[in-house]
Amino acid sequence: MTTCTCSARLPFRALKTKEDLAEVRQRFRELLEEGLLELLQNYVDENHFDNTLYRCTRCGCEYILNYVHKGFRGYCGPVEKPAVVDTTHFEMRSVPLRRLLDYLLNSGHEPSYNGSSVYGGRPGNWVNFGCCFDEISVRRKFNLPATVEYSEHYDVKGGSISMFYDEETGDAIFGPHPLMAKGTGVKTIRF
Ligand SMILES: [Zn+2]
User: Fold this and answer.
1) CA 16, 21, 22, 23: dihedral to nearest 10 degrees?
2) 34: CA distance to ligand 1 center in Å?
3) Residue 56 CA to ligand 1 centre (angstroms)
C-alpha cells in the first residue's frame, strides 16, 4: 500500500513545442531538487533527442521524458508497469519469424509482450523483446523473405518501436526504436 501522490504531480503529457519541453525539464529539475525523484538514465543530445528516466524515491514509480527535436514530438509521464507475459505458448504462424523467435527465446531474451497486434484490429501474434535489430544481418541469418518487412515507427503514446512484420500472417517481432534505445544499454541483435 502506498500513499505516494507522485503520479498526480507527473501525469502523462504530450510535448509538441520547445516551450513544452523547457517546462517539463524545469518540472523534473524541481522534483529532483526536492528529492522526490532520482535520475536513473539521462541520455540527451541537444540536437536530436532527450531520453531521460526518473524514479520516485518514495514509491519506486518510474517516469520518462522522451523527446525528438526534429518535428518537435515527445511525451513525458509514468512508465507503465509491464504485464505478466505468457512465455510458454506463442500463436505465431510465420515460419521465418518463428526462426527468429526461437533464437531469441533460446538465447535468453525475455519477451515483454506476447499477444495481438499493438495497433489493434489485425490478425497475428506480436511479440516484444527489449532489443533492437540489425536488419541486414538478422535478415540474412534467419533467411527472412521479402514478405517479412522491417520498419521503424515513432508513436507518442504507445512508445516507439522497430519491427519485423510478416505480411502473410500478420505476425510481428518488435523491440524499441533504435533512436530511443541509444545510450540506454539496449542490445542490438547483429550477426
Ligand atoms: Zn511515488
Assistant:
1) 80
2) 13
3) 5
Give the C-alpha separation, 170 to 49, whole Å: 32
CA of 9 to the centre of ligand 1 (A): 9
pLDDT, one tens digit per residue, over 47-93 is 778 888 999 998 888 999 988 877 777 889 888 766 678 888 999 99
| Total-model pTM | 0.64
In Å, what is the CA distance from 185 to each residue of 128, 132, 171, 172? 17, 11, 27, 23
All structural domains of the chain with their residue ranges: 6-78, 95-189
For the segment 117-158, what is each residue's pLDDT rounded down to a tens digit? 877 778 899 999 999 999 999 999 999 999 999 999 876 555
The per-residue DSSP string of 47-98 comes to TTEEEEEEEETTT--EEEEEEETTTTEEEEEEPPPPPP---S------HHHH
